[in-house]
Design a protein that fits this description.
4 strands, 10 helices, alpha+beta, about 10% strand, about 210 residues, binds glutathione
Length: about 210
Protein backbone atom coordinates (compact mmCIF):
# COMPACT_ATOMS: atom_id res chain seq x y z
CA UNK A 1 0.00 0.00 0.00
CA UNK A 2 1.53 3.27 -1.13
CA UNK A 3 1.38 6.23 1.26
CA UNK A 4 0.62 9.36 -0.74
CA UNK A 5 0.63 12.81 0.89
CA UNK A 6 -0.08 16.06 -0.93
CA UNK A 7 1.46 19.19 0.59
CA UNK A 8 -1.21 21.53 -0.55
CA UNK A 9 -2.70 25.00 -0.29
CA UNK A 10 -6.38 25.28 -1.06
CA UNK A 11 -5.99 28.32 -3.29
CA UNK A 12 -2.81 27.25 -5.07
CA UNK A 13 -3.58 26.62 -8.71
CA UNK A 14 -0.54 24.36 -9.16
CA UNK A 15 -1.73 22.21 -6.23
CA UNK A 16 -5.26 22.30 -7.65
CA UNK A 17 -3.92 20.68 -10.84
CA UNK A 18 -2.51 17.80 -8.82
CA UNK A 19 -5.73 17.39 -6.81
CA UNK A 20 -7.70 17.08 -10.06
CA UNK A 21 -5.30 14.47 -11.49
CA UNK A 22 -5.36 12.46 -8.25
CA UNK A 23 -9.16 12.49 -8.25
CA UNK A 24 -9.50 11.62 -11.94
CA UNK A 25 -7.28 8.61 -11.37
CA UNK A 26 -9.03 7.66 -8.13
CA UNK A 27 -5.81 7.79 -6.12
CA UNK A 28 -6.33 8.01 -2.35
CA UNK A 29 -4.15 10.60 -0.64
CA UNK A 30 -3.78 12.58 2.55
CA UNK A 31 -3.43 16.33 2.48
CA UNK A 32 -1.03 18.46 4.56
CA UNK A 33 -1.85 22.17 4.32
CA UNK A 34 0.96 24.67 3.71
CA UNK A 35 -0.39 28.15 4.43
CA UNK A 36 0.98 30.44 1.72
CA UNK A 37 -0.51 33.56 3.29
CA UNK A 38 1.34 32.79 6.54
CA UNK A 39 4.56 32.17 4.58
CA UNK A 40 4.84 28.50 5.53
CA UNK A 41 6.09 27.64 2.04
CA UNK A 42 9.48 29.22 2.78
CA UNK A 43 9.95 27.55 6.16
CA UNK A 44 12.41 24.73 6.70
CA UNK A 45 9.83 21.95 6.85
CA UNK A 46 8.48 22.75 3.39
CA UNK A 47 11.90 23.54 1.87
CA UNK A 48 13.15 20.16 3.03
CA UNK A 49 10.73 18.53 0.60
CA UNK A 50 10.39 21.36 -1.93
CA UNK A 51 13.70 23.22 -2.36
CA UNK A 52 11.95 26.03 -4.26
CA UNK A 53 9.79 26.76 -1.23
CA UNK A 54 6.57 26.23 -3.18
CA UNK A 55 3.55 23.95 -3.28
CA UNK A 56 2.60 21.39 -4.39
CA UNK A 57 4.78 18.51 -3.24
CA UNK A 58 3.57 14.93 -3.45
CA UNK A 59 5.36 12.70 -0.97
CA UNK A 60 5.17 9.05 -2.02
CA UNK A 61 6.32 6.58 0.62
CA UNK A 62 8.57 9.33 1.99
CA UNK A 63 9.96 10.39 -1.41
CA UNK A 64 9.10 14.01 -2.31
CA UNK A 65 8.05 14.84 -5.87
CA UNK A 66 7.80 18.49 -6.92
CA UNK A 67 6.54 20.52 -9.91
CA UNK A 68 2.88 19.86 -10.68
CA UNK A 69 3.40 18.67 -14.26
CA UNK A 70 6.20 16.32 -13.20
CA UNK A 71 3.92 15.00 -10.44
CA UNK A 72 1.13 14.44 -12.97
CA UNK A 73 3.65 12.65 -15.20
CA UNK A 74 4.51 10.39 -12.25
CA UNK A 75 0.82 9.75 -11.63
CA UNK A 76 0.33 8.86 -15.30
CA UNK A 77 3.22 6.39 -15.13
CA UNK A 78 1.88 4.70 -12.00
CA UNK A 79 -1.89 5.11 -12.42
CA UNK A 80 -2.36 5.13 -16.21
CA UNK A 81 -6.16 5.25 -16.25
CA UNK A 82 -7.39 7.70 -17.39
CA UNK A 83 -4.30 8.97 -19.21
CA UNK A 84 -3.48 12.66 -18.98
CA UNK A 85 -1.59 12.55 -22.28
CA UNK A 86 -2.15 10.48 -25.39
CA UNK A 87 0.10 7.69 -26.65
CA UNK A 88 -0.12 9.30 -30.09
CA UNK A 89 2.92 11.58 -30.31
CA UNK A 90 1.23 14.38 -32.23
CA UNK A 91 -1.83 14.47 -29.96
CA UNK A 92 0.44 14.34 -26.91
CA UNK A 93 2.55 17.22 -28.17
CA UNK A 94 -0.54 19.35 -28.71
CA UNK A 95 -1.92 18.47 -25.26
CA UNK A 96 1.39 19.42 -23.64
CA UNK A 97 1.63 22.61 -25.67
CA UNK A 98 -1.76 23.73 -24.34
CA UNK A 99 -0.82 22.78 -20.79
CA UNK A 100 2.45 24.68 -21.07
CA UNK A 101 0.75 27.86 -22.28
CA UNK A 102 -0.64 27.93 -18.75
CA UNK A 103 2.00 26.19 -16.68
CA UNK A 104 5.07 27.68 -18.34
CA UNK A 105 3.91 30.99 -19.80
CA UNK A 106 0.93 32.34 -17.81
CA UNK A 107 1.23 31.06 -14.27
CA UNK A 108 4.96 31.63 -13.52
CA UNK A 109 4.82 35.38 -14.18
CA UNK A 110 1.58 35.91 -12.26
CA UNK A 111 2.02 33.96 -9.08
CA UNK A 112 2.26 35.24 -5.53
CA UNK A 113 6.01 35.71 -5.34
CA UNK A 114 6.19 37.55 -8.65
CA UNK A 115 3.39 39.93 -7.66
CA UNK A 116 5.10 40.55 -4.30
CA UNK A 117 8.38 41.25 -6.12
CA UNK A 118 6.73 43.79 -8.41
CA UNK A 119 5.71 45.62 -5.25
CA UNK A 120 9.00 45.34 -3.35
CA UNK A 121 11.33 46.06 -6.29
CA UNK A 122 9.29 48.46 -8.41
CA UNK A 123 6.75 49.87 -5.95
CA UNK A 124 3.78 48.48 -7.87
CA UNK A 125 0.49 49.16 -6.08
CA UNK A 126 -2.53 46.83 -6.13
CA UNK A 127 -3.93 48.38 -9.33
CA UNK A 128 -0.61 47.95 -11.13
CA UNK A 129 -0.32 44.35 -9.95
CA UNK A 130 -3.89 43.60 -11.07
CA UNK A 131 -3.14 45.16 -14.45
CA UNK A 132 0.02 43.05 -14.81
CA UNK A 133 -1.92 39.92 -13.91
CA UNK A 134 -4.74 40.63 -16.35
CA UNK A 135 -2.36 41.49 -19.19
CA UNK A 136 -0.52 38.17 -19.12
CA UNK A 137 -3.60 36.07 -18.39
CA UNK A 138 -5.64 37.53 -21.23
CA UNK A 139 -2.75 37.23 -23.69
CA UNK A 140 -2.22 33.58 -22.75
CA UNK A 141 -5.90 32.64 -22.68
CA UNK A 142 -6.45 34.20 -26.12
CA UNK A 143 -3.74 31.92 -27.52
CA UNK A 144 -5.20 28.94 -25.72
CA UNK A 145 -8.65 29.67 -27.15
CA UNK A 146 -7.10 29.50 -30.64
CA UNK A 147 -5.42 26.19 -29.76
CA UNK A 148 -8.59 24.53 -28.42
CA UNK A 149 -10.28 21.76 -30.39
CA UNK A 150 -13.93 20.98 -31.00
CA UNK A 151 -14.70 20.35 -27.36
CA UNK A 152 -16.24 20.02 -25.02
CA UNK A 153 -12.76 19.65 -23.46
CA UNK A 154 -9.73 21.40 -24.93
CA UNK A 155 -8.67 18.30 -26.84
CA UNK A 156 -12.02 16.61 -27.42
CA UNK A 157 -14.38 14.30 -25.57
CA UNK A 158 -12.30 13.63 -22.46
CA UNK A 159 -10.16 15.85 -20.23
CA UNK A 160 -6.40 15.79 -20.64
CA UNK A 161 -3.49 17.52 -18.93
CA UNK A 162 -4.41 20.85 -20.51
CA UNK A 163 -7.90 20.82 -18.97
CA UNK A 164 -6.28 19.94 -15.65
CA UNK A 165 -4.26 23.17 -15.98
CA UNK A 166 -7.11 25.24 -17.43
CA UNK A 167 -9.67 24.83 -14.65
CA UNK A 168 -7.39 26.19 -11.88
CA UNK A 169 -6.18 29.02 -14.13
CA UNK A 170 -9.77 30.12 -14.80
CA UNK A 171 -10.55 29.92 -11.08
CA UNK A 172 -7.61 32.21 -10.52
CA UNK A 173 -8.59 34.57 -13.35
CA UNK A 174 -12.08 34.94 -11.89
CA UNK A 175 -10.55 35.90 -8.53
CA UNK A 176 -8.83 38.76 -10.33
CA UNK A 177 -12.07 39.64 -12.14
CA UNK A 178 -10.72 38.93 -15.61
CA UNK A 179 -13.41 39.14 -18.29
CA UNK A 180 -13.55 35.64 -19.77
CA UNK A 181 -16.33 36.23 -22.30
CA UNK A 182 -13.93 36.18 -25.27
CA UNK A 183 -12.97 32.56 -24.60
CA UNK A 184 -16.09 30.44 -25.31
CA UNK A 185 -14.12 27.22 -25.89
CA UNK A 186 -12.26 27.64 -22.62
CA UNK A 187 -15.54 28.31 -20.80
CA UNK A 188 -17.09 25.21 -22.42
CA UNK A 189 -14.18 23.05 -21.25
CA UNK A 190 -14.48 24.54 -17.77
CA UNK A 191 -18.22 23.83 -17.72
CA UNK A 192 -17.67 20.25 -18.91
CA UNK A 193 -15.12 19.77 -16.15
CA UNK A 194 -17.64 21.13 -13.65
CA UNK A 195 -19.90 18.20 -14.54
CA UNK A 196 -17.28 15.78 -13.24
CA UNK A 197 -17.01 15.01 -9.55
CA UNK A 198 -13.21 14.60 -9.83
CA UNK A 199 -12.94 18.27 -10.77
CA UNK A 200 -15.57 19.44 -8.28
CA UNK A 201 -13.95 17.65 -5.33
CA UNK A 202 -10.65 19.38 -6.13
CA UNK A 203 -12.13 22.88 -6.02
CA UNK A 204 -10.55 25.31 -3.57
CA UNK A 205 -13.79 25.74 -1.64
CA UNK A 206 -14.18 21.96 -1.38
CA UNK A 207 -10.74 21.47 0.20
CA UNK A 208 -10.38 24.69 2.20
CA UNK A 209 -9.38 23.75 5.76
CA UNK A 210 -12.11 24.23 8.40
N1 LIG B 1 5.84 25.39 -11.59
C1 LIG B 1 5.44 25.06 -10.24
C2 LIG B 1 4.78 26.29 -9.65
C3 LIG B 1 4.54 26.15 -8.19
C4 LIG B 1 4.03 27.47 -7.63
O1 LIG B 1 4.30 28.57 -8.15
N2 LIG B 1 3.28 27.36 -6.52
C5 LIG B 1 2.74 28.54 -5.93
C6 LIG B 1 1.28 28.37 -5.60
S1 LIG B 1 0.31 28.17 -7.08
C7 LIG B 1 3.44 28.81 -4.63
O2 LIG B 1 3.80 27.91 -3.90
N3 LIG B 1 3.63 30.10 -4.33
C8 LIG B 1 4.25 30.50 -3.13
C9 LIG B 1 4.93 31.80 -3.29
O3 LIG B 1 4.88 32.38 -4.37
O4 LIG B 1 5.54 32.24 -2.31
C10 LIG B 1 4.50 23.87 -10.25
O5 LIG B 1 3.82 23.69 -11.26
O6 LIG B 1 4.43 23.12 -9.27
Amino acid sequence: MTDIVLHDYWRSSAAYRVRIALNLKGVAYRSVPVNLVAGEQGAGANRAINPQGLVPTLVVDGVPLTQSLAIIDWLDANFPDPPMVSKDATTRSRQLARALVIAADIHPIDNLRVLKRLESQFGADQAAKDDWYRHWVTEGLAALEAMAGEGPFLGGATPDISDVCLVPQLYNARRFEVDLSSYPKLLAADAAAGEMSAFRRARPDAVKPG
